[in-house]
Amino acid sequence: MNDRTETLRTQRTPYVLATVVRAERPTSAKTGDRALVLPDGTMEGFVGGECAESAVRDQALRLLESGESTLLRITPGADSSPLDGLVTVTNPCLSGGTLDVFLETVIPPALVTVYGDGPVARALVDVGRAAGFDARPAGTADPPGPDAAAVVVATHGRDEEALLTAALRAGVPYVGLIASRKRGAAVTASLAGGDRVHTPAGLDIGARTAPEIALSVLAEILALRPGPARSPAGSDPGRSEAHDHCCT
Q: pTM of the predicted model, to two decimals?
């Protein structure tokens, strides 16, 4: 099971790990039994018979959409002791028995593809990984990952237009260019959809060093991600002027 989960993580495939934490007879599953639920509904492993498997699959697919984890109780009758964080479903099978199954949802971290090999590009990878992103360096011939959350171009003028165009065509949610304000405007002016490019990339936090600039860019990616923390429509988080000093 550990090898399989490692493969899924490497492939950036989301999954739910279902673990039986309590089994009240008569049940075919035992405490410690485990199964994986994949986005297409495939189950690998064992957490009980057909009724338990169906309940686990249905709940796991809902969790893959929300990204949450929960404790699932499968019981033949009404649960007399509901608990916070516990989802209870009725077991329709005649065999009866109660199972408590912990459903742990594992979603790949946001993929940030970084182009360039200068100090800022290297800092984006290092700081990004430390912050929990899947930050990956890429060569100029490599297309953005199919599920990339962000692409940052820090090539100092090399192949910028082609890389930005590829990211925009791929529909990457965040596309950033490390450049001075003047050069960034010139580069994006001729691009279809160039108004979607964040340049100079990063929030205005007074960044000067490469790690500080990387931090400002990652903060902007977080600020613009979907969810409650997203900036109100029409707002424009401040851009960092640091790139005017380092990245012309």
A: 0.73
